[in-house]
Amino acid sequence: MENAELNTIKAAYPDQYYATVSAGVVDQLFDAWASQQTNDPTLPAAADMVVITSDQWGLAQVPSYSGSLKIPVSGTTIQYPARFYCDKNTPCSVFDMWGYLSAPTSPAIGDLYAITPAQYADRLLNPRNQYYDTATGQLADYVPPPVVIPLKTQAASAMVWIQQQANLASAMGEVFTADMKAYVKAIAAIAGGTDTTSTALPARPIDILTS
């Protein structure tokens, strides 16, 4: 394209990409500079269209997994301009906000983080729990923290085992060793709440019964 011709086109269409809007969604996308070059008679005036950024033009070329492509517009503003998002939950859900059958109104954009088309596609192809890492700006695999069992609950479970050993000792006519008796007292103190300073159960004794 000659510079003079390009300058003429840019005078009429200072932005390269535009869209017409109908009922709150993009009706048709135009590369104005290419359309002008080929004398496209369907190209409306720039004032009658919404400006699309080059990034949004590229996003519009990504096929929708739902088979629908609805780009919502409010006035002259593209809603959900990054198209692909995740919410702020941990783990998070992901969304193609242009992939609905009708223009979406939720989640609110303030409740979302923008993600890349590749991150969205990877999540659909490899479903798993993830969260948005604000430090890196990336989706990261979510590993739930280990479940912490309260020490008193652990002691209560240990008391069940102790009772089993006591029943066994009685049946065999044996008694607990000194180490086992000390263990029983320690566990009972934790289970009963009189020991509030221990942070772990004592180790089970090796020798439990003595004849």
Task: Give a summary of the structure in a few sentences.
By secondary structure, the protein is α+β, with helices and mostly antiparallel strands.
Question: Could you outline the blueprint of secondary structure elements for this entry?
Answer:
Elements: H1 3-12, E1 17-22, E2 25-31, H2 32-37, E3 50-52, H3 54-60, E4 73-74, E5 77-78, E6 84-87, E7 94-96, E8 112-114, H4 117-125, E9 130-133, E10 138-141, H5 151-172, E11 175-176, H6 178-192, E12 209-210
Give an overview in words:
This protein is an alpha+beta fold. The protein has helices at 3-12, 32-37, 54-60, 117-125, 151-172, 178-192; strands at residues 17-22, 25-31, 50-52, 73-74, 77-78, 84-87, 94-96, 112-114, 130-133, 138-141, 175-176, 209-210. The protein is rod-shaped, with a radius of gyration of 33 Å. The termini are far apart. A hairpin with a 2-residue loop joins strand 1 and strand 2 (25-31). Helix 5 (151-172) packs antiparallel against helix 6. The strands form 5 sheets. Strands 2-1-3 form a 3-stranded antiparallel beta sheet. The chain has a 3-stranded antiparallel beta sheet with strand order 7-6-8, covered by helices on one side. Helices cover 33% and strands 20% of the residues. The longest helix is centred in the C-terminal third of the chain and has 22 residues, at 151-172.
